[in-house]
Amino acid sequence: MGLTNSSMGIKAVDSGLIIQKQTPSDKVVALAGNPNVGKSTVFNGLTGMNQHTGNWPGKTVTNAQGYCKTKKKSYVMVDIPGTYSLMAHSAEEEVARNFVCFGEPDAVVVVCDATCLERNLNLVLQTIEILPRVVVCVNLMDEAKRKNIRIDLSLIAKRLGVPVVGAVARKKKSLSELMGALDHVTDGNSQPTPLSVHYPEIIEAAISKIQPLVLQKFGGRLNSRWLSLKLLDQDESLIREINAYLGEAFLQDKELKDAITQAKIQLTEQGIDVDRLKDLIVSALVKNAEDICRGAITYEKHNYAAADRRLDKILTSKLTGYPVMLVLLALVFWLTITGANYPSQLISNGLFWVQDRLTDFFQYIHAPDWLHGMLVLGVYRVLAWVVSVMLPPMAIFFPLFTLLEDAGYLPRVAYNLDKPFKRCCACGKQALCMCMGFGCNAAGIIGCRIIDSPRERLLAILTNNFVPCNGRFPTLIAILTMFFVGTAGGAYSSLLSAVLLTAVIVLGVGVTFAVTKLLSKTLLKGVPSSFTLELPPYRKPQIGKVIVRSILDRTLFVLGRAISVAAPAGLVIWLMANIMVGSSCVLNHCAAFLDPFARLMGLDGVILIAFILGFPANEIVIPIIIMAYMAQGSILELDSLAQMRELFVANGWTWVTAISTMLFSLMHWPCSTTLLTIKKETGSWKWTALAAAIPTSIGIVSCILFATVAHLFG
Q: What is this structure's pTM?
């Protein structure tokens, strides 16, 4: 269909970055590298910042900056998105290319993986074509040593013509040599002479026709050789950026246009079209990388990755890959469910103790009952419930999820799910976004940036909500335990709850596949794109850093957003429960109005209004149901699931009601935070509305069909 970001209303990742120097003499350094080489770890080690790091491609999708200094100089470090090439094919690759080409950095540090240095040199060679002031940081030297890989860094530096230093980024002291090299290359007296990549003679001849004119007319603002090659390459997005950088009249110069035309004719006469030209350029880069590494890298152990391959035979096998995924998912949920109960109760007790003290204070100052009700029983109580219910599971789930990520397992999940997504005409990277959605659907939406194709990115955005987020787990777990496991508790109960929750999530994944396929054949027709998925080596997770980072970067971030929307929701809920119209409150009137339609879905009006009022935060759905059933004017909790089950059964709940409620919890509109994130990512209210309408309509239809069939068969 020729869909683009602009035609679909999806905003490309913003490549603009205002450099904030602390002093005018600060040097600006771009930190580049392939995905999964530890670039963000290098950035964190140098700047002391906390960019999230993870063992899978596509973590950094925007520019970030931090500060560091040596005895001689101070630097603004800019962490640009990981990219395999500066021949940009995706939004994050464009961000990286644009900053290196047009951000005018004083130097570029290219971080490489010591265990696959030859492949990483492709990016190094493209970078030194643009900017000679380059330092190559060969990271993960400890991994290379463990695999008995020996690297002669001085020989590689001699062949490249730029400094090459080794590092183990997790050990901050190992980065001192990198900073010394930076001091050297940013010294005004330094005159680096990097290797010039040699292309086939026919391409060199075409470059020579254009290069003198480029140098003459634009005075070296960009590397004339690289710019001449790009003018032959006909990369439209790059040409637009060059026009913006050099001025719109750049390609309108008649003499330059004639030279480009003659060079293209010369190439065409030799049977070299645009695609063939790109192939020859890439082949030349690969050959140069091979020549640089020849004799400089030795493998003392021929099959150095044998252990990884043995694990991959289990984790990515058609026979065992999917069962292992399900077992690991169930294990994560079991640990989350089991571990969250006690701290959740402690936090709840503490926060509700504070509520009692607030009540004492309001009574002490003789505040009116309505003010106490609005602020304490409304706003504060909802916040207390959200925190006590959300914080413990997230504090357990996110670190467990991050450990799997840090160990290198998540790319294997994407590998396993690539074929099913391809059958749905989607991209295998959607599996990574889907996994992020387990913690928070809003985080999953942001993660969709790693998908190159605008069409496939939109598919992932529209279907991400079918994977239940952390906010829906309490509802699902409570209903599963009350009606299908038993309320006696114990290890068996939590294990069975985890297994049943996994089954519910598998249903959500199945619906994701089905809706993705449906959209691919109707509204978003297209052919699935291919993508390069690197299976990183398995690594020992940095447990301490994982726990700290997952709690600070993910748990508290998501909790903060939930609190910001739950506070006004608490006020609205209290008002609806306390404003009387006749003999009943507004909340009960709304529930009665919705009741006939809700009955068709196997629910009742109270359940449906609870989902509507839970729009800001899914965590408050169950408390609202309890409040309405008990005719209370504020949210409250019961002491046990057994009491809750008795209350629900007394108000007409059956196993049909329980399953219908779980189905609707799995498939209904996204929360307000997720919808706002969708609007920000797509730049379109149309797609935002569709993202809400699709799961809601499917949830309503599914509930009606299930309830109808269940009632027909008694």
A: 0.69
